[in-house]
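Minutes, project check-in
Item: structure for the 73-residue chain
Input as provided by the requester:
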Amino acid sequence: MDCLRGPHSSPSHLLCLVYFALLGAVMVVTVVANDPDPLQDICVADLNSTVKVNGHVCKAADMTTADDKRLRV
């Protein structure tokens, strides 16, 4: 790209500057928007619980079994 060769004041240089600024902003937003805390990434619904939190609460991780993860239609 022409904008990487040195300081210029042409319209193409300004366009490159805007392009790289937007690219940097998108990269920052992508990095900040991740989920570092897997709070409920794996949730087996406890259908017997009387407490309702956005539907059903999750079973404790040590109480889940392989049968809980099987799809029943």
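Outcome recorded: Residues 1-34 form one domain.
No further action items on this chain.
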